[in-house]
Amino acid sequence: MNIKNLTIREVKRGLDKKEFSQEELRQEFLKSIKKKNPDLNAYLSVFKNEEPEVNKGVLAGVPCAIKDNILINGTGCTAASKILENYISTYDATVIKKLRGAGAVFLGKTNLDEFAMGSSTENSAFGPTKNPHDLTRVPGGSSGGSAAAVVAGLSIFALGSDTGGSIRLPASFCGVVGLKPTYGRVSRHGLMAMASSLDQIGPITKNSYDAALVLNIIAGSDKFDSTAVPKEAPDYTSGIDKSIKGLKIGIPKEYFSEGLDGKVNNVIQKAISKLQNLGAEIIDISLPHSEYALASYYIIMPCEVSSNLARYDGIKYGFSAKAKNLIDTYLKSREGGFGEEARRRIMLGTYALSAGYYNAYYKKAQQVRALIKKDFDEAFKKVDVIAGPTAPTVAFKLGEKVKDPLTMYLSDVYTVAINLAGVPALSVPCGFVNNLPVGLQLIGKHFDEAVILRTAHNYEHN
Ligand code: GLN
Question: What is the DSSP letter of 75?
């Protein structure tokens, strides 16, 4: 038995039966991180001295990895940016407090695209993460370090954040499960804001049962985040193995257009047939405004980015350049601290929000966003789940797209609409193309994470 490849449930069983102790488990992971991380660069920092506390919680002793844009009190948090290279968190994010309460053990912080902006983890100021399936390829982004850590056996599970696909895309490229909860299901307190109306934290795990277990812990309202909805979270594991017989699954024709790789399409079609064989009713649907999702996202997101990243001014946090006066400090710190993609988005967002352009760009994009949300509302009157590909291709080569931002943005074509609409979605591994994983995306109604977890669980177990 290789304990590094265990699921959360198996770890708990092993600990209960005293096959290994919490500390043995942690040491085993630290050893493999030491061995494999120099090649993968999945972790930016590792907590070597954190002895697990004795705790009887649901995740007691379970090692996990945290994306380095989520605060853990007293430890570094870089967002993979030079501007925060020496920043130390002054409090725990709400999700961290909850995981700690459940007994989880933090192994370290994982690599990401700077401030979660990207689809390949190549925009990290500390070097890209490599895809464990093929070290010449990207792991997807922006939570690439978290997904790579889970699939390489460097963590039992991980947390990521998803603003336009950053949990689901790396899950798809690395062959793990990644869940973006409904906007408002999980507190964002202590998550470094990228685009506040789109950001959500979620689990990256080896299977959907584990995703349900982690969601059970992190879901719920929070007095520190007024957008975390005060709606009781159900037990996501209960009923997860109920059959999907009679479940209505919608297949949006817009998610199978010319941009989709033919071989990826074949794998997705097989996965849909399998769901049909399990008793689901497959229904053709349309999400007519899908073609405007990327354009709308790539206006709204940079607008929010430009305002959220204004706080990194060389005074309040992290890096401060030597300069002759205050304005110069702002300019030099931001110029020297932010990478190219962050600067690009700050400029785009500032432009789109400026007087005279606001109505033409930001307001228009918000109107389109409303139409996209309406597409989902209409579709969910007819179906319980929407299924399609998570990404148009499998993992691409390192360096292939990083110099061409527009091509990179196309990787997000099937994921961004979900954030704009605020609905939950997950990516579950459904096969391979040329030995590289393919992810099936399952989308649910607002606050119906249970149905997509159940669909994925049925898919995995049949
Ligand atoms: N790839 C998308 C972007 O670059 C999504 C990022 C994310 O979800 N954090 O904006």
Answer: S
Strand-pair partners of 157? 64
pLDDT tens string 319-360: 999 999 999 999 999 999 999 999 999 999 999 999 899 999
Q: Is 143 a catalytic residue?
A: no
The pLDDT, as a whole number, for residue 4 is 82
The answer to whether residue 82 is catalytic is: no
* CA–CA distance, 452 with 462 (Å, rounded to integer): 16
Helix, strand, or coil here: 48? Answer: coil
Predicted local confidence at residue 144, as pLDDT: 98
Q: Any idea what DSSP says for residue 83?
A: G
Cβ pair 452, 426 in contact under 8 A: yes
3-state SS class at 388: strand
Contact 121 CB / ligand 1 (< 6 Å): no
Give the C-alpha separation, 4 to 139, whole Å: 19
Establish whether 166 is a catalytic residue. yes
Q: Is the CB of 94 under 6 A from ligand 1?
A: no
* Coil, strand or helix at 246: coil
β strands within 98-231, DSSP E: 105-110, 157-162, 177-180, 200-205
- Nearest Cα to Cα of residue 441 among 387, 384, 368, 385: 387
Q: For residue 121, report the distance from its CA to the centre of ligand 1, in Å.
A: 10
pLDDT digits (tens, 9 = 90+) for 150-188: 999 999 999 999 999 999 999 999 999 999 999 999 999
Q: Is the CB of 430 under 6 A from ligand 1?
A: no
Task: Please indicate whether residue 160, judged by its CB atom, sits closer than 6 Å to ligand 1.
Answer: no
Taking the alpha carbons at both ends of the chain, their separation in whole angstroms is 23
* Strand ranges (E), 306-400: 385-389
Low-confidence ranges of the chain (pLDDT < 50): none
pTM for the complete prediction?
A: 0.98
Q: Are 168 and 425 in contact (CB under 8 A)?
A: yes
Domains and CATH numbers, the chain: 8-245+389-461 (3.90.1300.10)
pLDDT value, residue 314: 93
| 167 three-class SS | coil
d(CA 38, CA 119): 22
In this structure, the strands spanning 63-67 and 157-162 are parallel
Query: Contact at 8 Å (CB) between 416 and 295?
Result: no
The amino acid occupying position 53 is: E
Of 67, 114, 115, 142, best ligand 1 pocket probe by most atoms within 8 Å of the beta carbon: 142
